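Support reply, case 0932

Customer input (verbatim):
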Amino acid sequence: MMNDALQRIETDFPEVRGKVVAHGRHLGIRWVITYNDIRGFEACNGYCQLPEGSPWLRLHYDDIPVEVHGGLTYGPDEKRFVGFDTAHAWDEWSYEALAEAGVEIDITWRQQYGLPPRYKDGNQWNIQRMKDEVERLAFQIALEHPKSPS
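Our regenerated output:
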């Protein structure tokens, strides 16, 4: 059963597919990690919420000056979230890493067709690396959006 906090967060993403696997705040910036069940591309996405009034809200994600794995691939949306994915060529989430993130997946279809993991020697992801990357994005957002003095 999903707790109330996660359920509230999932409702903040009406157009984003996926299960919320982690969320938090870093330097005052809200972040969320979701798992997306796209057969053959099992991966997680990371999102950070831009502050209200950010000039970046008027930009396409390609024009927002941040560095994140694979570049931004989402947003900003009406809830002010921007994000990135880990489903690029050579990215790999092992079944063990997904289980560690709390994701249960059905691998019988891979077994049925004799498909191996996508890239055994690829860019290996796990939940801690994903948190580190989403917090790196949050840091860049916080750096460019200092809070005004009270």
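We compared this against your earlier run and they match. Two observations from our side: The mean pLDDT is 82. Residues 4-144 form one domain. Please reopen the case if you see a mismatch on your end.
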